[in-house]
Amino acid sequence: MTIPPELQTDFLAGLLRRTSRPAPAIAAAIIQKARAKKGLALEEVGRLLNLSAAAGKDSQLTEQLFQTAALVKREIYGPRLVLFAPLYISDYCVNDCAYCNFHTRNRELVRRKLTLSEVAAQTRFLINQGHKRLLLEFGEDPVHNPIDYIVKVIRQIYAARTPRGNIRRVNVNIAATTAADYRKLKAAGIGTYQLFQETYHRPTYEQLHRGPKADYERQIGAAGRAFAGGIEDVGLGALFGLYDWRFEVLALVAHSQYLERTYKVGPHTISVPRLRPAPTVTYRAAYPVSDDDFLRLIAILRLALPYVGMIISTRERPEIRRQAFQIGISQASAGSVTVTGGYGRQRRQPQFAIADERPLQEVIRAVMADKLIPSFCTACYRRGRTGERFMQLAKPGSIQHLCQPNALLTLAEYLADFTTDGLREKGYRLIAAGLRQITDDAVRSETERRLAQVRAGARDLYF
Ligand code: SAM
Ligand code: SF4
Fold first, then answer.
1. 354 alpha carbon to ligand 2 midpoint, in Å?
2. Of 88, 92, 132, 450, which one's alpha carbon is 20 to 30 angstroms from that of 403?
């Protein structure tokens, strides 16, 4: 793809320079403007990003930034937090990414690719933890991981059942590919197709990658080919630590705005992975991102792209995740393992080390204690609320009128099927409070009716 002017490395670097040293009054006005939840212009994002570089990091402005991000998150998505687990299917990979343990030169890694019966067993394990949504992870390898294998894996996951449920949404993270391959993923019924640009800074990108993934244009054009292949929900991301985080955030916003302008659909989600230690990897973050800056970048993304789902993973420590949930994150992985086929067995050779090792139930307990509603909702794509239709609901904040009842219904299922007395009681109290937050009388009473059905044994009810 030819790179549009606003995504070119020189343009973005120039914009960051032009917006340096923002006057506090201007920054305050931008934060104020963001309360309208209409997003921000690139120029404005540049100024907010430069606030952190400004001497003294004005603490009042920082406070305003976080408070406004929390407000925008609540007004668009409500208090729900969607939970999912990654599932590593194959670590065969022909690429040599400097940061990843699955890099092709790694001879210490005993490569694994799950058979379909192993896929089913891993899926059953995750179902029995309470999960309803998975994110599949594959290395890039046309011989070991061809698209037909990937499609069979997806179908196997959807077919797996245990007495405690099934997986209702499969999102996929595979290397950039062709529109024809994306069409096959779509036909297999995937939810979101996620692909991270890793770094938008082209010289750094080219330096850190070897193999087919080293093609910067192939990577950045993947979202467009996915749309061409009929996929409507696409997820973006950058691996923070490879290059200046301000540049990456500006580029993520520019990329999102470009997709919206060109395809009428912005990204469904943005992920914010931060570089983690990994076995056999000697690369060290050239631009480490501090915890403060990490939270700041989440808040700025939330203001710039209010409608976008934002995902945090178990790369982050529990206390950072907790703060991030308040200021912009709307989805989180939980109870994760980053080893191929690693659930329920002895684990060796992860892709990278995680920093939140709590099981799903512990995460749920902590989330509930913070008055957020853990959600396993999968309603939107099953109701056809994808792509542009989703955006039309998310942009004005109407989506929360669906998110809230669906979060309550899926939490009620989880409480009934996976918890015992103490936690269950707490959960029911949270559900009662969540019901009171539903302002539309008809929706509230319908939700109440369905909650009673769930308590009586009905499953998979959604709006
Ligand atoms: N192989 C595909 C790809 O590279 O796009 C699929 C996903 S890969 C399993 C998932 C993501 O993990 C990568 O896009 C990268 O951002 C991230 N990752 C790799 N090594 C990492 C590390 N050491 N720390 C944190 N994230 C890492
Ligand atoms: Fe392969 Fe993806 Fe790891 Fe790169 S990040 S080595 S493409 S698995």
1. 16
2. 88
